[in-house]
Design a protein that fits this description.
- With 177 residues, this protein is α/β, with parallel strands linked by helices.
- The protein folds into 2 domains: 2-119, Rossmann fold, CATH 3.40.50; 125-175, no CATH class.
- It is 47% helix and 15% strand.
- The chain contains 8 helices and 5 strands.
- A 3-stranded parallel β-sheet has the order 1-2-3, covered by helices on one side. It has a two-stranded antiparallel ribbon with strand order 4-5.
- Helix 4 (82-97) crosses helix 5 (110-116).
Length: 177
């Protein structure tokens, strides 16, 4: 089991990356994933000069090289552009489909979860409570439905918003947790 926090800079250092990578059970996986994601240069740099998205991808590649069976990732898509996001989803989906990895993610990006394309259980948590759980498609349909509901002009005017309010704000305002 391995956990990757929202900002993996706290667990990555240049020394850890450059000295530790070859001691991993599967350094070849790290190098292959890093190359596929277009981040070969990142292995030679301090993680502190890398973007958040680059740090996240590097941390995930290192975890895969550890040959972990369970990977916990907090907000895996933060800082990723769409091209890298789709590539990362393909990498993770491959490991999952091969039975080499179980993945638990905390995310607000349900499209990423859909890109994984594997049987998925989704849980919507608000104010520390599970408010909805089920298959990904059902939870996503309700989630996106809530986003559309709060876009109603009257609600936006009432709250002084001219964009879709977050689900957290919706629950806070209308369900009063």
């Amino acid at each position: 089991t391995y956990y990757i926090p929202q900002d993996p800079a706290i667990v990555l250092t240049k020394e850890v990356v450059s000295k530790y990578i070859h001691k991993l059970p599967r350094p070849d996986i790290v190098l292959e994933v890093v190359k596929y994601l277009g981040l070969e240069d990142s292995l030679e740099k301090s993680p502190l000069v890398l973007s958040l998205g680059q740090r996240r991808c590097l941390a995930i590649a290192l975890a895969l090289g550890m040959d972990v069976d369970l990977l916990l990732v907090d907000e895996p898509t933060l800082g990723l552009d769409n091209v890298v996001l789709v590539k990362l989803a393909r990498v993770l989906r491959t490991f999952i489909e091969q039975g080499r990895l179980s993945l638990v993610i905390a995310t607000q990006d349900l499209e990423f979860a859909e890109h994984l394309g594997v049987p998925t259980r989704a849980v919507l948590v608000d104010c520390g409570r599970i408010v909805l759980e089920g298959d990904l498609q059902t939870v996503a349909r309700i989630w996106y439905g809530m986003l559309r509901v709060v876009k109603v002009p009257r609600l936006c005017t009432e709250l002084g918003l001219d964009v879709v309010m977050t689900v957290d704000r919706f629950f806070e305002r209308y369900l009063m947790c």
